[in-house]
Amino acid sequence: MQKAGFIGLGIMGKPMAANLLKNGVALAAFTRSGVPEDLIQAGAVACDSPAAVAAHADVIFVMVPDTPDVERVLFGEHGLAEALRPGQTVVDMSSISPMATRDFAARVRERGADYMDAPVSGGEVGAKAGSLTIMVGGEPATFDSVKPLFDMMGKNVTLIGAVGAGQVCKVANQVIVAATIEAVGEALLLASKAGVDPARVREALMGGFASSRILEVHGERMTKRTFDPGFRIELHQKDLNLALSTAQALGVSLPNTATCQQLFNACVAHGGKAWDHSAMVRALEILANHEIGQKTA
Predict the structure, then answer these.
(1) Is 224 a catalytic residue?
(2) Can you give the pTM of this predicted structure?
(3) Please, which residues have CB within 8 angstroms of residue 21's CB and are 6 or more apart in sequence?
(4) pLDDT-based confidence at residue 297 (cuts at 50, 70, 90)
(5) How far apart are CA 76 and CA 285, in angstroms?
(6) Which residue segments constitute the domains of the chain, with CATH numbers given?
(7) Active site residue: 170, 193, 238, 295, which one?
(8) How far apart are CA 145 and CA 148, in angstroms?
(9) In this structure, is the dihedral angle defined by the CA atoms of residues 227, 38, 50 and 166, taken in order, positive or negative?
């Protein structure tokens, strides 16, 4: 079995790395705050830099917040590029710019290594369960070689196309997720202000054509007002910025995406950058002067 490396052990990266370890993968790991003790106890080798991870691994997974973070991991001081060798594969599972992804891939390939982008969907719950959707851009042969490792972290693993295609797919995913959160928020807010129990409305809608995973999970968060982050607003804002900048470059209008971004901006203005993205509904509540579940006169 290939030896793996994992860089970035946050809300998503830590459980993804843990699933590799559970499946018997030899794993070297690095994160700026230090590799968690439970991963070390499970067999991870703690490294002091991305370059050190590259010295231990055949396939190196990267899971960090944004485009500049990926660039720093790859090409910064003690970055992966300092230690990459022919035959290795870098797999960026972060959600970043498709254009930057293609540039990073070219620079990595100049060093003889291969590169794939493989952003994910499914949140912390999916990361822990090993049930993530993984959207991959890269060469078919490289994909086939890494697929057994992907299968330890996800249940729906798809090669979308060439490098960068995975990131485009993830941007499209985040557009749909944001717009659906907004729609669910509007619907439950309307029901609540009309004096109808929003939890019962959600329950009824789950049995009909409006049913969705977001209505199920995020709708419940809205009715129970549990906004502890599974996926932070600030990260979804980053993804929508990628969508809007990519759309501008392509001459595509994304009006609903822009509206969702403004609602996220309103949440951030009220101290909510670390709220779960389902808390977009709080911006709608401000506009309606009504909180979901609040009794009406």
Answers:
(1) no
(2) 0.89
(3) 27, 39, 42, 43, 44
(4) low
(5) 43
(6) 4-162 (3.40.50.720), 168-288 (1.10.1040.10)
(7) 170
(8) 7
(9) negative
